Amino acid sequence: MFNKTINILLVEDNPDDVELTLLALEKNNIANPVTVVRDGQEALDYLFRRGKFAEYDHPLPNLILLDLKLPKVDGIEVLQKIKADRKLKLIPVVVLTSSKEESDVLKSYDIGVNSYIRKPVDFDQFVDTVKQIGFYWLLVNEQAPR
Fold first, then answer.
1. Is residue 2 part of a domain?
2. Is 143 inside a domain boundary?
3. pLDDT per residue as tens digits for the range 72-94
4. DSSP at 61
5. Is 27 contained in some domain?
6. CATH of the domain at 106
7. Cα 51 to the center of its chain, rounded Å
């Protein structure tokens, strides 16, 4: 169904949520390449090609799925650094989090998040949510030229 070559960066520390997200992508026939990083520092290193990613020649992602509650560097700070960078700020960032804190929603939009989605607890709803994310961000949305 979705096979454009759009690279996805999944920033998620919870192994169960990583597995659920990858399974939901698979169930919805979203075969785009997905890179998983497990904390905010690793996400920044990947995006800015630092640390263990300094020698790794990888394309920048076309879509970032970002959890907020991350170890080392939290998602809000990751989002701030993405949106402050000339090369990265055009990459759509979808916050996919379990946070119900209104302040997180407000901060995220104030910084420039493209979408804020609370992770549904129910698996079928989660699969449907990922399907909708995939449909919109991978097919409907026009990517900014780079």
1. no
2. no
3. 999 999 999 999 999 999 999 99
4. P
5. yes
6. 3.40.50.2300
7. 20
| Residues sharing a CB contact under 8 Å with residue 15, sequence separation 6 or more, in sequence order | none
The pTM score is 0.92
C-alpha pair distances (Å), 5 with each of 1, 60, 135: 12, 12, 14
Question: Using an 8 Å Cβ cutoff, are 76 and 103 in contact?
Answer: no
Q: What sign has the CA pseudo-torsion 136, 66, 33, 51? A: positive
Q: Read off the tokens for 44.
A: 């920044």
- Mean pLDDT lowest among 61-65, 71-75, 139-143: 139-143
Number of domains composing the chain:
1
Domain extent for 112: 8-138
Other residues' Cβ atoms within 10 Å of the Cβ of residue 35: 16
Structure tokens belonging to residue 40: 């905010």
Ramachandran angles phi, psi of 133, nearest 5°: -60, -50
Supply the angle between the helices 15-27 and 123-134 in degrees, to the nearest 10. Answer: 60
CA–CA separation, 35 and 10 (whole Å): 6
How long, in residues, is the chain?
146
Of 140, 139, 145, 142, nearest to 29 (Cα)?
Answer: 139
| Tokens 């949106």 -> residue | 83
